[in-house]
Write a structure and sequence with these properties.
Blueprint: E1 2-3, H1 12-24, E2 30-37, E3 47-50, E4 56-60, E5 75-78, E6 81-84, H2 86-94, H3 99-104, H4 109-113, E7 118-123, H5 133-145, H6 147-153
Parallel strand pairs: 2-7
Antiparallel strand pairs: 1-6, 2-5, 2-6, 3-4
Length: 156
Amino acid sequence: MDIQGDEPLINPSHIDQVIDFHSKNKNTDIILPTLKSNNYAGKHVVNVLKTEKNDVIYLSRGNLPFQFKTKNSLYYKHLSIISFTPSSLKKFCESKQTFLEKIEGIELLRAIELNMKIKTLLLKGDSFSVDVKKDFIKAKKFILKDNISKKYLKNE
């Protein structure tokens, strides 16, 4: 399990849901949870392009899918939790950066290029990454109001 530090306000129940989902989908190499978003959030957010069966087919920091014929009003943003099987993590770590990974700056594109099976799980709620100073200020304000964070702050 990879829980990325740039998203410090992840709901712990989301981690449990990902573990449970992966235990029921053992033939899947990687589970990549997503959250619905009605807006393209910009280059710091990784958007997930998936099939109707929740197989991940591409990841991008760009507006995905691109609005060529119709206006897209629903995006799936990657929540910074990644569940690997042990063998898939080993394969991933032993491989070199790939072409698409270098272009987009998204490590999991390597897994797609290695033909690893990636599924997504749609979770409810919201979360955001802390990538720039503006996000840090937002997180500081949010953490004081967050019910989960309050449990940890009481123990200080």
